[in-house]
């Protein structure tokens, strides 16, 4: 078993080939998932006898029942279309060439016929749409015995919690923690839309509401938007569609009456603003905020609203940095003291969303004690197969068109092209490279978007080259433009900077570089004679603009521009490479001069 | 907002080089755009900005078919929008298609009808404004705005159910946001999720996103679009295809009406090729090159036009001499493209001036119009013998410059006019800023004991190793590191030495001063001298580094002039500056 565990994917691949090439292939071949070096201990793909006695019927039943099967039942990576099977049936040495020759004669027309061009456009749109709303994939199939993935669990917990608040009127709080791109926000949105009744949703973000005052104003505004007509003058016409489902005004009057009962000291509803307090605006405003003194009382009356409330705090850790954590305290305290069963109030849920894992520790003690302590974790996909399945599903998104014949023809071509692309080992390898660096779904989406946009009428099928270009463009774009494209004086300044650095001055002024440059022009006859004045200064400013030269001291009015201290952000090797690429002998001489 | 010549803009739209960007962008924005796009263009960011705008304009003016969204866009420039309110108002005005009108108080967009409020209070209000626009509530307001102030995007037609809207917010020069409005970077990039409407933020910058984003991954990663590098060939084609259309007859431009005659276009292509090969080592920016071309072309083509006019005149004389046998025969002579020989001659004549144009126009030491006026060629240059033409050209430039009186920069003229004492002060300030204070005794000490003291110290100090050999940094001369600060006392003392040595003989006789140096002592204690120093400080020729309102401290100054100017001043005063500078240049 241990030997299976440490086996590398490459190695597994060879075993796969061998098993495929064997003369007696079984009906259902088990191929180990490739994406993960950490193989399940009972991987049936290994050619050991453990894999053999698995009744296919049970596997089928299990899949039908949608319970997590203990073993990966299907080869997730190579779906064994007839192409691959044919290719694999040949001897391993000839396999590569065989496949390559097939690819051209496979039936993919090299030039797309003209009448299919609009369909390519439609296909691109369909793919982009599929990337925007990720298609459902068969998680059981992808995850095998690791099913369910973290996010499924997290979703269940979250929707249970929200359900408790919305249906049973509980006051709940929880924290959703996970790395960025792991689907936190999406999960919250999904859970909210799946609720049986529409709650009042207040969305706050620590990035927009920098302090509690802004946050409370925003809460008031969003509540006023969503709670409806009775708080507003009669002539208001445009409201959200939720208002249609609102109870009639009499009920809401009762609700405000309840407010009166519950909060004896607060003698009027803070939402009802009798004197519009905005004299500057020309037209009488409809939604006015309550006066500032009432704003804090707002939170304590949230449970008395006619509908349950869900408060989503994005960037939860940033709210913790507000003064005295007052907003968090109020919210969590209100949520905790929410009484169920009395029938007086409706539920309230506070959902904090953050990427910071130690968020619970930065809460003050009194705030922490009001927090329920429920922390739900999300995670990025743990298997490469997840990505590959997603990519297949997205690329294979069905597209529609007016002309049914064309659509059929196109679908035939495209459904051939996609598996061809996705089964290329080098494609999988490229994706694995990205996956090994980051499992953020966003980067996957960006790469696939870029790949899709690259498809043109001339090269209508996705290729490895396009994928690689997309990856290099989206994963880590170069910080600076290639140095050899810089103008000539800029390169001269870079060389002068390298010399200044060698002589022990990491920090330099323009005058230093200019002096070195002038000396070089004077001593070597080979230097271009054209440069005297402005060009060098402009080149320096250009380098500062491009952030290749960074200011080393804060700018002061008393320091003249040419004496401002700078340091260089590129190292000498980059300069050397650029000089070699430019291929000018005098520059190279100057650079290598000690 | 775009300030690019129309010719260049149309050339840009046709350029195959930028097709990549506009295609990507229009496909993305018309289908399912990511919430945040970042366009990085290190070289030609202004061209890209105008391209993005024209792409968006094309998308927005297209009437949406079923299933597509109506696109509305706003371009804000982070340089112009230096405060949050300006940014909010600019964006909302553009998105709502609202133009502030002078007659109704130039108010910003404030929603319509009953929903009216101010949307520029804070970011939340801005988001509310965006939500209102996205919900289509501004339609009524736009229709109510009947006095032609609206942008007229042809939206008034669709009165019924408004199609779903897609908003695009373009921020040009986004690198400035980090300096000016750092608190807005994250919310703007998250605008889509904050406002819950279909909005895409598009940042456009010559700096990569890594240098703009705030730490801790507060912003989502953008979808990157990198504009490819414009190679020389492409630049040349772009500029050549941006041949301006001839100006209208009534235009008051200084350029000759025939300068952009269509027949001259082939010559223009050659002209651009030569210009590019001369200037492109120094700048790749097509806008800068176009600026230089616009300054040089009228002068370049003037000899051809002169020759053509001469020809016309001759014909006229000839026809009047023949006097009307057949009037129809003598069509006015059309402007012909010049011959190959003329072209070569022109290029050879004018190529040196390309470099001169680059030198003064690229750093904007002069402007295109002045430069063109100064460098206008003499009349009938082509009729001169080829050997004399270059000299004639150079001579003409000198006379032009003299007649236009733009030879001296304003700074130099001002310095010439300074009083004599102020010049002394400036030289003294330069010395005080450049020489280390500990060398003052050695440089200016004129006493008897000074020499022996120095010698004694010199003997006492151990030999220092040669700089650069022991791992310590090579010493950089102070004049390259910038002027150092000095107290006022030191300035006065050095000034005293200078005056005593160079000014004492020129003063009117004053028999009341008997001790040597007493007269100078008197001179440097005058109120006028201090007034002079304050005036120089207000002119920024001296830079005061200590706060101006403290009475109890010695005021500190710094020299504001450079070496060249100092040596010029010293020469006019008869001082040999190099003898007094500690580190000889």
Automatic annotation (TrEMBL), chain A:
GO terms under cellular component: nuclear origin of replication recognition complex
Biased composition range(s): Basic and acidic residues: 103-114
Positions of the Origin recognition complex subunit 4 C-terminal domain: 390-579
Domain of life: Eukaryota
Compartments (UniProt record): Nucleus
InterPro entries: AAA_16, ORC4, ORC4_C, P-loop_NTPase
Acidic residues bias locations: 235-245, 259-270
SUPFAM superfamilies: P-loop containing nucleoside triphosphate hydrolases
Assigned keywords, A-Z: DNA replication, DNA-binding, Nucleus
Pfam families reported in the protein's UniProt record: AAA_16, ORC4_C
Domain Orc1-like AAA ATPase, first and last residues per copy: 156-337
Biased composition (Pro residues): 34-44
Single GO MF annotation: DNA replication origin binding
Region (Disordered), start-end ranges: 1-114, 232-277
Gene Ontology BP annotations: DNA replication initiation
Recorded family membership: Belongs to the ORC4 family.
Name of the molecule in the record: Uncharacterized protein
Organism: Lentinus tigrinus ALCF2SS1-6
Automatic annotation (TrEMBL), chain B:
Subcellular location, principal: nucleus
Compartments, as annotated in UniProt: Nucleus
Record's compositionally biased regions (Basic and acidic residues): 326-341
UniProtKB keywords: DNA replication, Nucleus
Biased composition (Basic residues): 453-466
GO MF annotation: an example: DNA replication origin binding
Cellular component annotations (GO), alphabetically ordered: nuclear origin of replication recognition complex
Origin recognition complex subunit 5 C-terminal domain ranges (all copies): 418-579
Annotated region (Disordered), positions in chain: 138-162, 318-341, 446-474
Protein name according to UniProt: Origin recognition complex subunit 5
Organism placement in taxonomy: Eukaryota, Fungi, Dikarya, Basidiomycota, Agaricomycotina
């Amino acid at each position: 078993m241990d030997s299976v565990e440490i086996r590398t994917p490459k190695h597994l691949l060879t075993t796969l080939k061998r098993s495929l090439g064997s003369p007696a292939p079984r009906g259902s071949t088990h191929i180990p998932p490739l994406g993960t070096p950490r193989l399940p201990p009972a991987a049936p793909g290994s050619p050991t006898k453990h894999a053999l006695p698995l009744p296919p019927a049970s596997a089928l039943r299990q899949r039908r029942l949608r319970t997590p099967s203990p073993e990966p039942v299907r080869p997730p990576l190579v779906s064994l279309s007839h192409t691959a099977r044919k290719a694999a049936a040949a001897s391993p040495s000839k396999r590569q060439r065989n496949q390559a020759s097939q690819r051209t004669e496979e039936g993919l027309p090299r030039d797309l016929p003209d009448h299919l061009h609009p369909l390519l456009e439609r296909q691109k749109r369909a793919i982009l749409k599929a990337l925007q709303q990720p298609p459902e994939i068969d998680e059981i199939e992808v995850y095998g015995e690791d099913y369910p993935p973290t996010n499924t669990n997290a979703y269940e917990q979250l929707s249970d919690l929200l359900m408790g608040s919305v249906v049973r009127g509980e006051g709940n709080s929880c924290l959703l923690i996970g790395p960025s791109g792991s689907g936190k926000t999406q999960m919250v949105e999904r859970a909210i839309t799946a609720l049986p009744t529409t709650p009042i949703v207040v969305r706050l973000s620590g990035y927009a509401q920098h302090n509690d005052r802004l946050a409370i104003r925003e809460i008031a505004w969003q509540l006023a938007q969503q709670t409806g007509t009775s708080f507003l003058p009669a002539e208001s016409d445009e409201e959200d569609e939720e208002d249609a489902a609102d109870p009639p005004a009499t009920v809401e009057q009762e609700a405000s009456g309840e407010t009166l009962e519950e909060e004896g000291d607060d003698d009027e509803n803070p939402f009802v603003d009798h004197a519009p307090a905005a004299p500057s605006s020309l037209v009488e405003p409809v939604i006015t905020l309550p006066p500032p003194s009432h704003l804090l009382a707002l939170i304590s009356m949230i449970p008395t609203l006619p509908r349950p409330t869900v408060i989503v705090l994005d960037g939860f850790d940033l709210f913790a940095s507000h003064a005295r954590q007052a907003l968090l305290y109020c919210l969590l305290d209100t949520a905790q003291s929410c009484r169920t069963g009395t029938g007086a109030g409706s539920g309230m849920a506070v959902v904090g969303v953050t990427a910071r894992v130690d968020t619970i520790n930065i809460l003050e003690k009194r705030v922490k004690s009001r927090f329920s302590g429920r922390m739900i974790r999300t995670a990025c996909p743990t298997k490469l197969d997840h990505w590959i399945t997603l990519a297949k599903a997205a690329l294979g998104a069905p597209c529609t068109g007016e002309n049914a014949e064309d659509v059929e023809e196109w679908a035939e071509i495209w459904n051939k092209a996609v598996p061809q692309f996705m089964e290329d080992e080098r494609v999988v390898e490229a994706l694995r490279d990205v996956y090994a660096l980051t499992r953020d779904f966003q980067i996957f989406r960006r790469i696939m978007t870029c790949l899709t946009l690259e498809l043109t009428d001339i090269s209508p099928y996705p290729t490895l080259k396009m994928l690689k270009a997309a990856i290099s463009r989206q994963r880590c774009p170069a910080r600076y433009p290639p140095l050899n494209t810089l103008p000539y004086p800029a390169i001269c300044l870079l060389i002068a900077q390298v010399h200044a650095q060698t002589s022990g001055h990491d920090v330099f002024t323009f005058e230093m570089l200019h002096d070195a440059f002038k000396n070089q022009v004077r001593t070597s006859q080979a230097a271009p004679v054209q440069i005297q004045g402005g060009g060098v200064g402009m080149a320096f400013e250009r380098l500062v603009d491009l952030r290749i030269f960074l200011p080393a001291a804060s700018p002061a009015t008393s320091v003249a521009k040419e004496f401002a201290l700078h340091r260089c952000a590129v190292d000498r090797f980059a300069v050397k490479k650029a000089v070699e690429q430019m291929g000018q002998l005098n520059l190279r001489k100057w650079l290598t001069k000690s | 907002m775009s300030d690019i010549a129309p010719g260049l803009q149309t050339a840009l739209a046709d350029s195959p080089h930028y097709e990549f960007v506009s295609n990507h962008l229009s496909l993305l924005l018309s289908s399912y755009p990511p919430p945040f796009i970042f366009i990085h263009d290190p070289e030609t960011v202004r061209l890209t900005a105008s391209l993005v705008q024209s792409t968006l304009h094309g998308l927005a003016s297209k009437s949406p078919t079923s299933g597509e969204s109506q696109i509305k866009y706003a371009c804000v420039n982070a340089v112009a929008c230096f405060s949050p309110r300006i940014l909010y108002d600019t964006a909302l005005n553009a998105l709502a298609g609202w133009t502030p009108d002078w007659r109704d108080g130039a108010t910003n967009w404030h929603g319509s009808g009953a929903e009216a409020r101010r949307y520029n209070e804070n970011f939340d209000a801005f988001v509310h404004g965006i939500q209102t626009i996205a919900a289509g509530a501004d339609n009524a307001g736009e229709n109510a705005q009947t006095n032609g102030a609206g942008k007229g995007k042809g939206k008034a037609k669709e009165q019924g159910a408004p199609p779903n809207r897609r908003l695009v917010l373009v921020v040009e020069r986004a690198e400035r946001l980090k300096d000016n409005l750092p608190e807005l970077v994250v919310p703007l990039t998250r605008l889509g999720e904050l406002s819950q409407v279909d909005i895409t933020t598009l940042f456009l910058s010559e700096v990569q996103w890594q240098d703009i984003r705030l730490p801790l991954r507060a912003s989502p990663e953008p979808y990157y679009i990198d504009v490819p590098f414009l190679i020389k060939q492409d630049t040349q084609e772009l500029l050549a295809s941006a041949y301006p259309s001839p100006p209208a007859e009534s235009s008051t431009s200084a350029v000759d009406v025939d300068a952009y005659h269509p027949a001259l276009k082939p010559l223009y292509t050659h002209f651009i090729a030569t210009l590019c090969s001369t200037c492109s080592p120094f700048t790749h920016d097509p806008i800068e090159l176009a600026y230089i071309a616009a300054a040089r072309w009228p002068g370049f083509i003037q000899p051809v036009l002169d020759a053509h006019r001469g020809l016309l005149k001759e014909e006229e004389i000839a026809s009047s001499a023949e006097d009307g046998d057949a009037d129809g025969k003598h069509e006015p002579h059309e402007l012909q493209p010049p011959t190959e020989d003329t072209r070569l001659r022109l290029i050879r004549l004018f190529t040196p001036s390309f470099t001169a144009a680059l030198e003064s126009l690229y750093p904007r030491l002069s402007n295109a119009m002045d430069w063109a006026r100064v460098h206008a060629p003499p009349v009938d240059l082509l009729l001169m013998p080829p050997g004399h033409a270059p000299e004639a050209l150079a001579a003409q430039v000198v006379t032009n410059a003299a007649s236009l009186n733009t030879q001296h920069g304003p700074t130099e003229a001002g310095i010439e006019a300074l009083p004599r004492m102020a010049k002394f002060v400036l030289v003294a300030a330069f010395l005080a800023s450049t020489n280390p204070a500990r060398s003052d005794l050695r440089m200016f000490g004129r006493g008897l004991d000074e020499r022996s003291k120095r010698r004694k110290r010199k003997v006492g100090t151990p030999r220092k190793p040669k700089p650069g050999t022991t791992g310590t940094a090579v010493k950089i001369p102070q004049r390259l590191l910038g002027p150092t600060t000095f107290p006022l006392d030191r300035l006065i003392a050095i000034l005293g030495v200078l005056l005593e040595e160079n000014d004492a003989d020129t003063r009117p006789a004053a028999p009341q001063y008997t001790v040597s140096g007493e007269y100078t002592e008197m001179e440097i204690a005058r109120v006028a001298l201090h007034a002079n120093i304050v005036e120089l400080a207000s002119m920024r020729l001296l830079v005061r580094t200590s706060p101006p309102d403290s009475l109890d401290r010695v005021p500190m100054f710094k020299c504001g002039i450079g070496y060249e100017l100092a040596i010029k001043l010293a020469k006019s005063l008869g001082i040999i500056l190099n003898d007094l500078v500690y580190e000889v240049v």
